[in-house]
Amino acid sequence: QVQLVESGGGSVQSGGSLRLSCAVSGSEYSRLCLAWFRQAPGKEREWVAEIRSGGPTTYRNSVKGRFTIYEDNAKNTLFLQMNSLEAEDTAVYYCAAARCTLGPGPWNWWGQGTQVTVFS
Prior knowledge:
Helices cover 0% and strands 52% of the residues. The protein is mostly beta strands and 120 residues long.
């Protein structure tokens, strides 16, 4: 069983920064792929960024250059550093995990979400 717990959300002024954390528990951490999703009011949940085994990362176009996804493997923790935040970034942010595969597959485990609010 894999469990994920997000933290670090809050309210910030536009242009500000936040760092989200996701503590991952489970014995198979080293074999997991990890991602961040978000869901804004009235919108569908959308993929934000992911990191695969060995460190390759990908990002949604709208956050490229502003957000960074990374891990602290020693602490089994996933991070999302968010800079130059905009009102459009306001959403509930979720971390997700799946066993890494060669092709696409479902995200098997999800955190409870943490609210990020950006004020103008």
